[in-house]
Amino acid sequence: MKKINxxxxxxxxxxxxxxxxxxxxxxxxxxxxxxxYKTESQAYRALVGCYDGWQCTVSYGPTYCFQxxxxxxSDECFGGTGYSDGRGTQVVDRFDIGESSSxxxxxxxxxxxxxxAIYRCNELLQHEDDIEWTSEDTxxxxxxxxxxxxxxxxxxxxxxxxxVPLITVPTTDNVPQSEPAEIxxxxxxxLKYAANNIPTSAYPKSDAANTDxxxxxxxxxxxxxxxxxxxxxxxxxxxxxxxxxxxxxxLSDIINSGQYSLVPVFKNxxxxxxDNWVQDASGSWTNESTYAGDGNEETLLAMKFNYTSDYNGxxxxxxxxxxxxxxxxxxxxxxxxxxxGATVPTKVYASMNITGDxxxxxxxxxxxxxGIADMEDYQSKxxxxxxxxxxxVKKYTPRSGYLQESDGSWTLTHLYRDVLAxxxxxxxxxxxxxxxxxxxxxxxxxxxxxxxxxxxxxxxRAYTEDDGTLSGYYSQKSVSQANxxxxxxxxxxxxxxxxxxxxxxxxxxxxxxxxxSGETTLSGGGEDVVSYSADNIxxxxxxxxxxxxxxxxxxxxxxQNAGW
Length: 564
Known about the structure:
The protein is 41% helix and 9% strand. It has 564 residues and is mostly helical. The protein folds into three domains: 47-253 and 544-553, Alpha Horseshoe (Serine Threonine Protein Phosphatase 5, Tetratricopeptide repeat), CATH 1.25.40.390; 268-305 and 316-434, no CATH class; 435-538, Serine Threonine Protein Phosphatase 5, Tetratricopeptide repeat. Strand 13 (519-523) and strand 14 (526-530) form a beta hairpin. Helix 2 (40-59) runs parallel beside helix 6 (136-161), helix 6 (136-161) runs parallel beside helix 9 (217-235) and helix 10 packs across helix 16. The model is unreliable at 1-29 (pLDDT under 50).
């Protein structure tokens, strides 16, 4: 009998979702598979556990979580981190185990947490017929969400490792790797079930304050489009029984639903980019933020986090955020402390710094232009930075703000969802936006759905000033595959999308883009050339190394990916 420790799930979720609405729960019952999965309320708690399992792949898991990996793998970021740190980040960034030959288990925690989350989904789905459902819609909703979470988990794993064990029942058996076609067929089946069965009324945008983070039928349809474009681009055929016609129909449903729209000003999508700390004549500080808020009209799906984390097993923060943060301390609002990973190449900044396009400054921290690079305190910390370029990620970065002390003075300190408290390493609350409406519009354009109109809508927003007026620098570009891919690069920079967009254009395109991003940086205050070998990338076909521990535990049932 396999025990489900509901206490551990609920403690984690209570920590995770003090501000997350639908994940709040107060159950403190330890149950087994023999006496659980009987009522809808128990099914709901188990579903919460599935969401928590997905969230744990970031908050509990690895330094190299999916979001962070997606960036340092791409041409958007170097490995970065500390000058005296191990070179595991460089192993990933350069596709080269020679950077640190001992790093054969970089992804072991990631692998473990993904399969723990998959196990939770499989447990709930296995007991579908044991639950006394009071409503067919509720049954379809909960089962659709559990299937969609499983589909997302496998989509991440298949993109990272290609051949992974495909497990759809709760088992601890030693299962061999499946081929991509079989894995993607299951991903499609799971997401299709969610798209076709979760009622459109299940989680309306009007109730986002309580339901933000739930997977809707519209989120599932958008994810199907992402799966389709990746698989069709990389493998040259359609995944499972998913057709282009179905994908286009799903995207049309989203657009015509009236549930979603673009946030009018791009920077307002991101907490740090929309923060504006103002000091009045009396010396008091106020954050006049223009952030559109969690669950805003552009968000189809977000992974939820919060700031109430500790080191006693209750970690609900976004562990990727602190990896992107400025290394060395908190120097100037609105940016908090991080570990200096994923530094941004100067070439990326230059290519995004287009006159009139608002996305560059909303996406990248220019340490010189924003008055940080020349600060004496910051300069004294540069000896500990690896692959410094003067640019770092703004979309996902720790935040800081001003706290008034008892004597009336103001201190710059960490900021967590507008609460000045917490630990920067585990308490980052910013949600990870999995799918935005802008992506729906650009995928629709790519598939020929009202292509010019949808393409123009995203570009016009990029050139919209803070006051809502269209910049005089905007000019229409004709829609084409090349222009769509370039627009995706600018729009989704540092959102964990670029690498997969490159990969689906072919391994040679991927390798060429990454090689071209290399340049001279500063490490420990001295020159350090970041360079790449195209052979290292093409020999691995863009995939990552399977953890050696997992291969050993399998007794050789699992085999390593080519090139590693």
